[in-house]
Amino acid sequence: MKISDHISLAEATKSITAQRLGIDNTPDDKTIDRMKLVANHIFEPLRNYFGVPIKIESFYRCETLNKVIGGAVGSQHLIGEAMDIDDDFGEISNRQIFVYIAQYLEFDQLIWEFGNDNSPDWVHASYSTNNRHKLSVAYKKNGYTKYEHFTSLESLYMFLDDLYN
């Protein structure tokens, strides 16, 4: 089953951790419908714009899997509204992915996940029927994950420059 032109349901639910631990990571129909929205409003425009394969690091996570990997209790991954994108293929950067989404796409949350001031380690992007257009940076401080929220890319870049330089 395909949830969009370039994403199969198997790819969107794949988890090595779930396979290793025998966790059933199968979404229900309502969740699949939300996953289709994310795929068609976030992933497909990215894929079409850049014209290269883009890796989905994580998409849907059932509650058991989310708990095992230490995901946030209220994570949008649990309801099929979020995906983590990581360009392991090296044809485009995670920064390019982040900037494109921020500038051209509708989104609920867009998080620059860790990394440095040049590029995040991965990009968390979510889409819902009530998008907040929330820009954030996730970073470590004293061993804890912290989040800063921004109203513009410019203020986000200034924060990253101060954080990493």
What does this structure look like?
This protein is of the alpha+beta class and 165 residues long. It has one domain: Muramoyl-pentapeptide Carboxypeptidase, domain 2, CATH 3.30.1380. It is 38% helix and 22% strand. The chain has a six-stranded mixed β-sheet with strand order 3-4-6-5-7-8. A two-stranded antiparallel sheet has the order 1-2. The N and C termini lie far apart (46 Å). The model has no long low-confidence stretch (mean pLDDT 95).
Strand content: 15-25%
CATH class: Alpha Beta
Biggest β-sheet, characterized? 6 strands, mixed
Count helical runs: 6
Q: Unreliable segments (pLDDT under 50, ≥5 consecutive)?
A: none
Indicate the structural class. Answer: alpha+beta
Distance between the termini: 46 Å
Radius of gyration of CA atoms, rounded to a whole number:
15 Å
Based on the coordinates given, report the CATH architecture.
2-Layer Sandwich
Mean pLDDT: 95
Helix content: 25-40%
| Shape annotation | globular
Helix and strand pattern: EEHHHEHEHEEEEH
* Counted beta strands: 8
Number of domains: 1
Q: Which fold does the CATH topology refer to?
A: Muramoyl-pentapeptide Carboxypeptidase, domain 2
Q: Give the strand order, joined by hyphens, for the main sheet.
A: 3-4-6-5-7-8
